[in-house]
Batch of 2 targets.
Target 1
Amino acid sequence: MSDSENPTKCDRCGKDLEGRYTQTFKLVKGKPRLKETFCDLCDQTERWNNYAKTGVICTRMYMDLIYLHGKYATEPHPHLDDKKILEVVGAMEKLKKHVRLFENEVWLADPSLGSVVDKCQTHGMKYEDKKSKITFMTYDIAGRVMITIQAEIYSITLITGSGDMTSGHMGIQGIYSPYDDAAKLLDWAITNHETIAQKIKSDTKVNMGI
Ligand SMILES: [Zn+2]
């Protein structure tokens, strides 16, 4: 095991640590004790192995794609399956189409949820659909609005400019969901557009970590 102060090797692949690494800790008699130090590549491999098992796309995988595109565009990745990478790229591209529909048919269309959020005096707003157990939250701060649609375990977060009523500016900020479930969350918001716009209320408990 590596020394927590100055780790030199990855506990998983044994290679020298270069650049970023992750450390996990466990509590022993109330004090944190180093459990494992692992390199970025091993961390990445774990996320993608989890995707292969569960289909869950997480935000860091989405970030990985940008890195993978740069570093492994011309050579095969040492651990990851190209097919899985292409699958996630395809899923994110498809989700962007649902996001565009959401933007045009919920955020900008009459009644415009974007203007409801823009008029609200507090940062956060929330609507809970008890029947489907879906929660819809917005958080408006520093010129940006984050929009999270969350089912029991899965969620997707979108981002756009505060008061920005231009189509084509909304993007995906975060995700923890298989593709199908994330698409269903966006489609639910499109179907329930009017109800959300009418019933969403200011909520000071909604925070940046929505
Ligand atoms: Zn490693």
Target 2
Amino acid sequence: MKWYIINKLHCQTAHVLRIWSLKALVIPVLLIAGLTYCLQPDKKITIVDSNSTKPIEGAVVYFKDDRLALRSDVNGRVRIPEETGTTPVTIQAKNYRSREYTLDYFLENKTVTLHYDSARVNPVEKKFHFTREDTLQGRYGAYRSNNDLLHYDLSIKIDIEKEHLSGKNTITFTMLRESDTIQIDLFKNMHVDSIVFNDQNLTYQRECNAVFIDFPHNLKKDETHSIDFYYSGSPAQRGRFGGISFQQDSLGNPWVFTACQGTGSSMWWPGKDQHLDEVTNMSLHFLVPSGLTAVSNGKFIEKEKQEDGYTWFHWKVHYPINNYCVSVNVAKYTHFSDQLDDLSLDYYVLPYHLKKAKKQFRQVKPMLRCYQKHFGEYPFKKDGYKLIEVPYSGMEHQTAVTYGNLYKNGYLGRDWTGVGISTKFDFIIIHESAHEWFGNSVTCGDYSDAWIHEGFGTYMEGVYVECQFGYKAAIDYLNGYKSKVRNRTPIVGPPGVNHWPTQDMYFKGALFLNTLRHVVNDDKTWWAMLHDLHEEFKYQSIYITDVLNFFNKYLDKDLKPLFDQYLYHTELPELQLKYEQDSVQYRWNTQVNNFNMPVTVQHKDSSFFIYPRTEWQSRSRNPENKTLNVATDLFYIDVEVIE
Ligand SMILES: [Zn+2]
């Protein structure tokens, strides 16, 4: 409370000072307005499309002086913190003309309209068509945002012969707003058997893959409730990884596995199939034919043999977990374990791969040591770390990383970045495990911001290379990714539609982080900042604006132009050079106004920074030595020499 009052006083003083120079008659009026404004709790504004007046999600309100970026939510709403002063504000959104305001504008106006500009739409994205189904799954709508998940208790019987699931999810949640409806998701081809609340069957409406559940009365704000959601059906394989697949190992034994990233977890179990809200912890139970092992997330608790030829496997996740990380793998696995200090390492592989696995998985300990050194303690210590063999390449399932890289180095045996380094390690172990920090522990609030998973995950491969083989190898490795960058669509995709963004979020996303490291130009600060970023946001769902705000504050810099150019535009920043007789001129050619980024150049025998802006600048040079060598391996940019 004390802090609150001090903060108010600070705000009032700021307002009084600001209006001091104004005409005497106006002062009292403004003073009242100022006080009224200051004494209000945080103020909300709504950003809408000028034509349709529909809210715009993912718009960014940027307070230039405070270097603070705020993202509008699904209702187009942004909460303006009271401590922001009179700072100029820019409001921008994908495909819209940006607008500038002073903060005073919001004293009178609660709604901001942005004008859609079709010329700004990326030609590839122009061809995207999103359906009602995409929106229901991707949007954090009213019947999702009215509650906060606490716990899932998921039990599923897996009938392998019939490729059929039947089960129950007990979903515990706290209401954030009074309401008599919540949205739970289950794909439309799966059957809702019943939904039970306090011994009463609930009614529900299904639309696409959403189930809108009606309660007999309003559930009040702050109340905690549970429902038992019973379901059954045969999931249809779909998406990048099949979602859930019923296959066999090479000896003809059953092999069932799930990987539903992008498609959605609700293709095989009912839950809140989104990214913003994670349960605090989760219990998982799988009933499978005896003789097979069901391996899931978290800690193995026990197995219980039934009389009917089936065995229960109980697992417990002690941490928040995102929906697509929930996974089960059923096979005739053999298990071996190890220990890294007090962290348990468990491996589940096909018995005939045991020898290869024991050799290949020796890479786990140095990898974990490297990531712990740079990003902090393994975030799921109570649950331990697992690798589980599967017949697809792999997936970052939390504490149950699935592995299918054929026990070979590189990516499925290939030199993945083509510079002779990725053959020195197992790409899947290194990449998928990196997601334990970024992807699983820190999760994006919406897929449009999945750079937080994949840009960081890919960059962490480079971090591993640096731990094992040194800085130069890391730079070479990351630069090997340049050949995979397309620059056709922006890294940040359309929000609210469950759309998995372009692959540039991996490769260009990692090269952007490599660029930022060299902008920071102080490794101690760089590593400390990445470590603290994870520490600050672990077990949370966040947006790119949160990363930007954290970096800006940490570095006392304004990185917004860099984030904008690399993540919201397709073109790389282009450094233009013009050589004169005894000078060189340089400037940035970028889509973002006021782009300014230092770059390292080499001239004669010395290397130094230049600080180009979007206007030409010049510095003297020795006419004997014509060229300025730009460190394009440290800064991912284009260089254009203008004749
Ligand atoms: Zn990944």
